[in-house]
Amino acid sequence: MTIFSEATAVTSLGEGRYRAGLDEAFGFETRPGGPVVLNGGYLMAVLMRAAVAESSHAHPVSTAVNFLRPGLPGPAEVVVERRKDGRTASMLRASLVQNGEALLDALVTTGTLVPAAKPVYLGEAPAPMPAPEDCPTRGRERPKKGFPANVDMRFDPAVMGWLDGSPTGRPEMRAHVRLAGGDHPDPYVVALAIDSLIPVVTNAGFPGWSPTVELTWHLRTLPAPGWLTVHGTGRMVSEGWCDEDVEVWDAAGNLVAQSRQLARAARTRE
């Protein structure tokens, strides 16, 4: 089992530069025995650790990321530029670079959240999902390695009909998520969770890889220990483009994070 905090660790090289080692434990084989491509949420977590290390605030409250190239296991570097230092918020620009090319470019806003803070207003929670023990793992049973071996995901059976050729017809996906080692979630685990779902367009009849182009997400509170529940929906699929809105709720019923992303629906509808 790979420890997530170690797999996302960065080391300061001075002058806003940080060394990172991208870990294949949070990637997927593009084909059996083929190259490993790393999960986008994992790459965001690495980048965000460097941004927070460069900031005077403790938490990444807003992150807007352009995904430029797939990330591969191996050495990488994060370059961080301070744009504004404020009393309640700081803004930084960060790039995750590998082999001389940027993989991710991001604007990160940092602040300091108060643990267990109560919202003044909170809209309705999504409809409850079945308990994790009543939800299947990702896809059909097969030997687990990489991301599936290190991230425990339990999908709502109601959105898994696409496996047998019976998608719901709506862009939607839901799952309980936690690290396979059972470690408690933190903001960097939330970054992983927010980009962990099978693409919501799978249930609209667009199976296969749906590469993210841009993703913006907000950390709303610090997560309680236990499972995270991730709810994903989409609004429109058109001309090969699709959107995905995600909410992450923790085991105590708190809204932890919200995101919206623009992605490609890479394959023709079947």
UniProtKB/TrEMBL annotation:
Gene3D superfamilies: Acyl-CoA thioesterase, double hotdog domain. Residues 132-263 form the Acyl-CoA thioesterase-like C-terminal domain. Coiled coil: none annotated. Pfam families: 4HBT_3, 4HBT_3C. Residues 37-110 form the Acyl-CoA thioesterase-like N-terminal HotDog domain. It comes from the Bacteria. This is Thioesterase family protein. It comes from Actinocorallia aurantiaca. The lineage of its organism: Bacteria, Bacillati, Actinomycetota, Actinomycetes, Streptosporangiales.
